[in-house]
Design a protein that fits this description.
The complex is a heterodimer of chains A (about 375) and B (about 110). Chain A is of the alpha+beta class and about 375 residues long. In chain A, about 45% of the residues lie in helices and about 15% in strands. In chain A, strand 4 and strand 5 form a beta hairpin. The chains are: A alpha+beta (about 375), B alpha/beta (about 110). At the A-B interface, loops of A face helix 2 and helix 4 of B.
Chain lengths: ~375, ~110
């Protein structure tokens, strides 16, 4: 028996077609359903991504998409909302903090200008007096500091010069420095007027100590080296309230520290006395006053600049071949201290005062 | 800074080590305040372990001296290192406060 092949396979073909259509359609349907569900998930994600971009661009108020379903995506959106809120809060705090910091910095800058303004900065200090060559410099470690120096005439042929260092740093030290400097000046001025001749530095320090020690709850104190110079004959009278001993640089001799009387710092305790000593500067001799910001300047290895190094350097800078004036000596020392510190943080104010006695040109003692 | 306190007769001996500067002076103040609050009024500060003291540290010492004086207590220092001796000498602290070479001398006071 023969059947035509076509007739025989017709049913099979029809079945294959039906199942093909069915599976294809089912697949398409499935794909559509999957796509629909996927869109339901990715659409809010895409919108969230859009908001994240907006936030990244700085728009912290970009509205979050509202989600009707509760699933992982809505959790994410919620977390995102919290983050947005926290970010806004943080930025607001930061803005306030920055504003107050900027205000403080600006106030400190002004305070620094005021503080530097009360230090004499005109050199030479007495242009019509050729007997002396004086220079001073002060570099605060922070915006404001507690070091100071001063010099002013006292009578017609005499003048006072001093250097001081208040305990601690920053704004409290700066306040105390302004008080101490003003007080010394006032006491010295009145002493200059009362006494014919030269006031007594030890006496001035004792009075300053009484005033400063009154009601000194903060226990701050100040070290001061105060001296007077008679320009006619180079006679120096000096007293020290706990200050680092100055360097005496005699022409043609090795520099040396002035002997210390170990008198106490000013302002710590009432009832202290201070000894006045004297010496005579000959033509070409010099005195170097400094604060411990110089000798205690530290390098990265935590070593101090030290008294010994200062003496060595003073010898070098004032040696017979140096030819430096007072300004040159101060500048040379400051440069050396910075070179020694070698980038280490400056921890204290660096203050220097050099006084060279040039003399009257007349033979002294005549 | 490192501290260690021991009772010795009527005194409290406080050994202080490290560096006393603007950053650490507060630790010293707090440590002393604790002992004073605990009833110690006669303090001997042993400074043999102190490497360095800045003006901020000296200020803390002054505050301590004032505090003890106000409470009718007393304060002495002993065994200063070379560097600290120099700072105490230059600043005149040796003239303002009792300083002894050894702990035994500081404790031998009436």
């Amino acid at each position: 028996m023969f059947y035509p092949k076509d007739e025989l396979l017709a049913d099979v073909g029809r079945q294959a077609l039906v199942s093909g259509v069915l599976s294809g359609g089912g697949f398409l349907l499935l794909a559509l359903v999957v796509a629909f569900i996927a869109r339901g998930i990715t659409r809010p994600l895409r919108r969230l991504a859009g908001v994240a971009h907006a936030v990244a661009q700085g728009d912290l108020d970009a509205p979050l998409p509202t989600l009707r379903t509760r699933d992982e995506v809505s959790d994410l959106a919620e977390a995102f909302g919290h983050m947005q809120g926290a970010l806004k809060e943080h930025i607001r705090e930061l803005t306030t903090a920055t504003a107050s910091r900027e205000r403080m910095e600006s106030e400190l800058r002004i305070a620094r200008d005021i503080q530097m303004g009360i230090l004499p900065k005109l050199f030479p200090p007495f242009p019509n007096r050729s007997e002396i060559d004086l220079y001073a410099s002060l570099e605060p470690a922070r915006e404001v500091g507690g070091d100071f120096y001063d010099f002013f005439p006292c009578g017609s042929d005499c003048f006072c010069f001093l250097i001081g260092d208040v305990s601690g740093k920053g704004v409290p030290a700066a306040f105390y420095m302004a008080v101490a400097k003003t007080l010394i000046k006032a006491l010295a001025d009145s002493a200059c007027q009362q006494v014919e001749g030269v006031p007594d530095p030890g006496e001035i320090l004792a009075r300053a100590n009484e005033d400063l020690a009154q009601d000194n709850e903060s226990c701050m104190f100040v070290t001061i080296f105060l001296a007077t110079l008679d320009m006619r004959d180079g006679q120096v009278r000096y007293a020290s309230a706990g200050h680092n001993p100055p360097v005496l640089m005699r022409r043609g001799a090795k520099p040396e520290y002035l002997p210390s009387r170990q008198d106490p710092v000013a302002g710590a305790m009432p009832g202290m006395s201070f000894v006045t000593d004297s010496l005579r500067l000959e033509t070409g001799d010099a005195l170097l006053l400094y604060t411990d910001g110089v000798t205690e300047a530290m390098n990265p290895a935590k070593e101090f600049f030290s008294d010994a190094r200062l003496l060595e350097l003073a010898a070098e800078l004032t040696g017979p071949d140096s030819g430096l004036d007072a300004k040159g000596v101060c500048a040379g020392l400051a440069t050396a201290v910075h070179a020694f510190a070698n980038g280490a943080d400056q921890s204290d104010d660096i203050t220097l005062l050099t006084l060279r006695y040039v003399g009257t040109g007349k033979k002294q003692g005549s | 800074m490192e501290f260690s306190g021991t009772k010795d007769g009527g005194f409290l001996v406080l050994s202080v080590g490290g560096r006393m500067d603007a950053m650490t002076a507060k630790e010293f103040e707090d440590e002393c305040a604790r002992w004073i609050e605990a009833g110690e009024k006669r303090l001997v500060i042993d400074l043999s372990g102190l490497e360095y003291i800045s003006s901020a540290g000296l200020r803390s010492i002054l505050m301590l001296a004032k505090k003890l004086k106000a409470q009718a207590g007393d304060l002495a220092f002993c065994a200063l290192s070379e560097m600290v001796t120099e700072i105490f000498t230059v600043s005149g602290f040796v003239k303002m406060l009792p300083v002894f070479a050894t702990r035994a001398e500081a404790l031998a006071r009436p």
